[in-house]
Amino acid sequence: MNGASNGKSRKGLRKPGGDPIRTGRNLPLAIGSGIALGALVLLSIYPLAAAFVLITSAAVLIGLRELKRALAEKGVSLAVAPLLVGGIAMQPAAYFGGPGWLAGTTAVTTIAALSWRLRGGAEGYVRDAAGSLFVLLYLPFLLATWQLLISTPGDGPERLIAFIIVTISSDIGGYFAGITTGRHKMAPNISPNKTWEGFAGSVLACMLAGALTVSLMLDGPVWAGVVLGIAVVFAATVGDLIESLIKRDLGIKDMGRFMPGHGGLMDRLDSLLLGGAVSWVVLSLLV
């Protein structure tokens, strides 16, 4: 209205009250990441679901590389060889052997990682051992729960797709609710842009997505889908906060450069890692 002098103030989206919209998550990127993952899932599981093992194995390789570099900023030296070999082995172990084989492979990898560090002496042993065990559980173990989902007899691929759809819905619902109504900060010291209003939008979107996917894709009860949505939204939100806190502690902005200009693979997997494990538990018990 006031010409060029106000041109700068008009740039960008604004809330109804006039405040500029700021969000921590890039919606097009979040959606694009989910679509890309969904495309990889579809291409790898139809007609051979076992091919998805290659996808999570590649994610272990890329994610381990990112975590190794990031943790090195704090002087943490990972047991890379045992984590790489064991982490990749955990993927087919979960798919072909189920929870029992996954637990066994995880235990063997734990012993190998702790033993590997012995040659470095006592100085920093607890620090390095703790770092290795954190990476083991945070990356390959949680990724392997995706294999537990997809290997479920009868409707495994549909369970994996349902989990991805519900998790993406958390991003979309939270984004739109946050940018339009977000006022009350959820965790300003960890993720300043997260709001309780955005969280409420995520809850509603996940409940709706869960109800639809479970009833239409898995022939399960609607109430089980609602439970799935609630469980996933909490897992996705906590996963996002955990990743943010890790980066703040390490003093880095992004975990890597897997996606130029947008960070690493671990930056994109934050909500999906915990969401997969929670989805497997909920669907195993209720559907």
UniProtKB/TrEMBL annotation:
Keywords associated with the record: Cell membrane, Lipid biosynthesis, Lipid metabolism, Membrane, Nucleotidyltransferase, Phospholipid biosynthesis, Phospholipid metabolism, Transferase, Transmembrane, Transmembrane helix
Region (Disordered): 1-20
Coiled coil: none
Functional pathway: Phospholipid metabolism; CDP-diacylglycerol biosynthesis; CDP-diacylglycerol from sn-glycerol 3-phosphate: step 3/3; Lipid metabolism
Source organism: Nocardiopsis rhodophaea
Protein name according to UniProt: Phosphatidate cytidylyltransferase
Membrane topology: Multi-pass membrane protein
Record family assignment: Belongs to the CDS family.
Membrane-crossing segments per the record: 35-64, 76-95, 101-118, 130-148, 160-178, 199-218, 224-246
Catalytically driven reaction(s): a 1,2-diacyl-sn-glycero-3-phosphate + CTP + H(+) = a CDP-1,2-diacyl-sn-glycerol + diphosphate
EC id: 2.7.7.41
Localization terms from the record: Cell membrane
Keyword Flavoprotein: no
Location, primary (coarse class): membrane
Matches recorded under Pfam families: CTP_transf_1
Enzyme class: transferase
